[in-house]
């Protein structure tokens, strides 16, 4: 969580004049919100896409699996709050577009995706989602579930298994 925005900035500096897409959950977006200042300051052509389900999805998944669905601080009912993303985009001087189910075929969105400037696109999604592959509690980072077939795992590992 919070990885996509800083990496998008690095990609943009490494590849000047190319559009970069940064796909974020609403929680991960807030973990790196200071990155918006650099995107704005250097006018980097980054499309910041936020999948807003009003929850910390990866953490709620762990709470569901390991803590009997005790959702503390990760959902709206559990105390999590999502600031107004449109206001944040205005504060950083970035164009904003809100995408909902009824606007999936919006010509303004198509135009925005083709444009060579930066923007924030908030995609409002409903409900809790699950992330896969995912890390299993108390397991090494090299063994996310579902596990790869042993042969494919060995072919892709840089270190000995």
Automatic annotation (TrEMBL):
GO cellular component: acetolactate synthase complex
GO biological process: one example: isoleucine biosynthetic process
Pfam families: TPP_enzyme_C
Required co-factors: thiamine diphosphate
Protein name (database record): Thiamine pyrophosphate enzyme, C-terminal TPP binding domain protein
This protein's record includes keyword Lyase: no
Protein family: Belongs to the TPP enzyme family.
The keyword Secreted appears for this protein: no
UniProt keyword list: Thiamine pyrophosphate
Residue span, Thiamine pyrophosphate enzyme TPP-binding domain: 1-117
SUPFAM superfamilies: Thiamin diphosphate-binding fold (THDP-binding)
Example GO molecular function: flavin adenine dinucleotide binding
């Amino acid at each position: 969580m919070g990885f996509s925005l800083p990496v998008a900035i690095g990609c943009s500096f490494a590849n000047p004049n190319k559009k970069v897409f940064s796909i974020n959950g609403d929680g991960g977006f807030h973990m790196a919100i200071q990155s918006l200042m650099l995107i704005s300051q250097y006018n980097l052509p980054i499309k910041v896409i936020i999948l807003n389900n009003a929850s910390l999805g990866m953490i709620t998944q762990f709470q569901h699996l390991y803590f009997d669905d005790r959702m503390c601080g990760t959902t709206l009912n559990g105390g999590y709050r999502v600031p107004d993303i449109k206001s944040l985009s205005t504060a950083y001087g970035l164009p904003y577009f809100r995408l909902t189910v009824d606007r999936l075929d919006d010509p303004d969105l198509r135009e925005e995706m083709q444009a060579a400037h930066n923007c924030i696109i908030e995609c409002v999604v409903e409900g809790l989602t699950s992330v896969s592959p995912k890390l299993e509690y108390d397991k090494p980072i090299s063994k996310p579930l579902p596990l790869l077939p042993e042969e494919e795992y060995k072919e892709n590992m840089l270190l000995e298994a």
